[in-house]
Amino acid sequence: MHLSPDQKAAFERDGYLFFPGHFSAAEIALLNAEVPALYARREACNVREKGSDAVRTNFAAHLVSAPFARLARHPRMVLPVQDLLGEPLYMHQFKINGKMAFEGDVWQWHQDFGTWTNDDLMPAPRAMNIAVYLDDVNEFNGPLMLIPGSHKLGVLEAGHDLKTTSYPLWTIDNALIARLVERAGGPGGFDAAGCYVPGGIVAPKGPAGSMLVFHSCLVHASTSNLSPWNRVSVYLSLCAVSNHIRRFKRPEYIAHRDFTPIECLPDDCLLRQSPVELPWAQGMPASALQTSLEELVATA
Ligand code: SIN
Ligand code: MN
After folding, report:
1. CB of 129 closer than 6 A to ligand 1?
2. Which end of the chain is more exposed for a tag (fewer CB within 10 A), N or C?
3. Mean pLDDT, rounded, of the chain
4. CATH label of the domain that carries residue 175
């Protein structure tokens, strides 16, 4: 699956592309069936919400679960990103974010590249985020919010928030967010039929199986989930191989160190259960927890 010139132009302008219903219900059911066992693991790879047992984020499922390993090599996910970055890709990060019914906490306003460059010494924003929705995402269960066009501003000033949630994040302060939203179209408005027309914040909503591709400098956030519906989504971060990280300050299960280019499987790999390797199926190696402040010599 490749992108059209119009899609590439829309990405350049807005910093994201949305593909409603990109994966079928049967494909998503195979992924969803794996989540309870992954979330039940009492291991570092599961970060739970502050003061609750609900999983906020699970790391590296593509190394332990066959359906997620297939998703990580899926041409419907990888090829559009390869079109945008113009070179082979490796998996920088792989998360299954819970945002569970009643318990899912906020993700404050942030850019992902801020963390990747500050912590991992990723040289340039030549990496992309992809969200694949495992649940229907509606206006009530904490959809991801984006500020269109904010990717064009590069890395913005951020502070390291270690308190608000259970997960440390480089977050952007309210005054700057207000300016960015105003610049992107302000509060939006209502059309003649009374339907809301978005302005400087958009929140792509859609059925389970929808896919969102967004730039690593695009400013984004999500509110807490007070609804009775889970909002489980997979977040994959694909990085251009030549742009691989230069430091292993964060453990490998969070920021991966295997820069081998991803080779796509066939389009029906989820349903036909194509064979995949699962290097961490018997548990994470001790090396995955080791960290270092040493800077790597560039190899690409
Ligand atoms: C993220 O920004 O990494 C996650 C946001 C969300 O799950 O809503
Ligand atoms: Mn993010």
Report:
1. no
2. C
3. 96
4. 2.60.120.620
